[in-house]
Structures are given as C-alpha cells and as structure tokens.
Amino acid sequence: MLRISDEVFFAWDRAGEQLGVALLSRPEEWFPLSEADFLVLEAIARTRGASAASAPDAPHVDAALERLIARRVVAISDRAAERESYYMPMLYYHMFVDPLKTAAYLRALERQVRPGMRVLDVGAGVGIFSVAAAKLGARVWAVESRPVVETARALAAENGVAEAIEFVRGDLFDPRVAERIGRSGDIDLVVSEFIGDEIFDEEILLKTIWMRDLYLKGQGGGRLLPRGLDAYAVPFECDLAVNRYRNRIDRVRATGVEFGVGVEAVAGLVDREGLRNDFSDRLYARSFREIDAEEFRFLGEPVRFHAADLETCTRVFFQSRKELPIDRGGRLDGVLLYFVAHLDDEARISSAPWLKRTHWPQVLYLRQGERRVAPGDTGRLAIAYTGGRGFAVHLR
Prior knowledge:
6-stranded antiparallel β-sheet, 21 strands, globular
C-alpha cells in the first residue's frame, strides 16, 4: 500500500507561487511539486493508499509516483496509515455545551427528518444528534470509533429511543462498518461534524466523499448535513499574537543558554511551526487563552479562499491563491481563518471571531518578516490543504 510519509511537511516558496515539500530531517532540501505530483498525493489520500492511478487528469502518473517515492514523500507499506487515536473525553463536553452548534444542528434535524427516514450519524460522539433524529421518528445508525459510544448508548436509553438506534463501534473506513450499515438499506440523511480545529484537518472532505458515495450513491433523495463549508481569510495586525510567537523563540534560546547547549535546530522548528497556532498551548500552558477579538485590528474584509459543496465535491486536497485588499493601514501580521458551515438551506454556523464564540478555536497564521501596509495595498495569500495536517500558508 502507499501512504504519504509523516516525515515530510508542505510549504510554499518565498514568493508564494509554488507549493513544495521537504523532509523534516532536511528542511533545506525543499523541492517543488508538479500538478501531477499533487494529484497523485491526493489520489493516495482519497483511496487510503490503495492506488495512485486514480489521479484525475494527471499525466505521467507512474513517473510522478516514482519521483515521490524516491524523494521519500510517499512510502510503501503493508498496511494503511494508522488513523488518529488520541482520545480526550472532555473534548465531548466542550462540543456538547456549544449552544450555537448544538442548536443549529437540532433545528436542521427538525426540518430534515421525517418519521420512517433512515439516518446515519457518523462520528456520533455522545449521541445527541442520534437521539434527536430517533425522537423525530427516524431509524438511526450511530457510528463512533471511540469509547464515548457507551455514553451515547446510555443517552439513548435515558431518552427512551434505544430501540430506534443501532450503535456501531468502529472506524468509518472499516469495510465491516459499511457492511453492517449497507445491509440496512440506503440512507436518507447522513449527519456528521468533522469540522476540525483548523477547519479541514479532521478530513471532512475525504470523509464526506466516502460517506456520500457509499451510502447515498444512486439514492437520488439522500442528503448530507452539513451540505457545504466555506473557508475565509481576513488580514490582521495583532501585537499579542506576534509577541507570543517571538517569546517562544526567545525562550528556546534562553533554555539553550541556561543548559549550555546549541538550540538552533529547535529554534528552527518553532520558527516554522510557531507561525500557526497548533493549539498545543491548550494542553501544556497554564496561562493559555484565546486572543480576544478586540486585540486584533482587521485590515480588510474577509476573502473566501475555498468553497466546498459537500454534496458534489470530488477533491480532497486543494491549493488557492487570493488577493487580500487592504482597507486600513498598519502592520500586516498575518491572516485569521474561519468557516461558515451550511447545515441546510436555513441553518448556518460560523467561527468568525466577531460573532458569538463557538467551541472552535482561532486559526491564526503569521507572516514571516514585517510589512507595513496602507489603504489600497494588497496582501497576497497562497494556501494549500494536503490532508489532516493543517494548512501550508504563505502571506506577502
């Protein structure tokens, strides 16, 4: 089987024109990805390592695959890559008590579900959406890979709908899960919530395509909830974000001085990865807090950099280049990314920082180096998504 190596990272060139890749062990040996390379990598992700030959419209697939293997970007394995298994039960508390998300989903279910419908709740978590659909008269299959499925069972029993829900413990991509659900007939509505901390990093595109094609194919009337996901970028100036980034590098170097060791390798890691908020502060820093919206000076209007119609999309990777018009003068420190999820024709949820907060955190990417801008200037954003590893972002 084929898999994209965990030993690589994706990054743009200095001009933000060309996406490339490098080994973590040799970051200086960055090399550009051709369109064929990019499509081959997407095909490997989409088929979970089964094939690279399904890359759409990619000429010279064999040559591209050989090149990627030689560069150690693609590895050959006797099994598919392990799926993420990190499990923190209290994450489900934060998702459950998010009033905006929970209310929006429940309103959409009330509009969509009718007695007798067959509903698939994937990544069911504590089971609140499964219980809601069952109360509306649906027959529900609730798929969850983690131990929290037992909480979902208890919630169903507590609400008197245990007989209407079949709980399936397993991975969405496990063929045995599909066999159990497939024997039950086609699904009328698939409910999921795979919007990650960095919008796409829970692989919502890949998982949605998989669910849609497997359970709704040929159905005609089958629907998805959510139906669409738009991602936006807005340029900002923020002293606090910049100071946090610089403080991390300063603390690495101070640690090196304290213990008498060279630390430029670690400083290089922080210099590269610290430009984005990877949320590690949530686990390890007592003083972690989100940056208040008032701390930002937004320098322009939001620009949509990707629109995914989940009912029709076929791509699981993407690249986008956008111009960001500057309306307010200041220091262009970075971009804040947020999403708008379209649950149905009426219900939407958004992580925009100027709206009431959801449980989704801020997504910030800082630019390297200082740039002063004035009204009428333009920032140039290059952004790529290459699977569940966050974005590759370049801002100039």
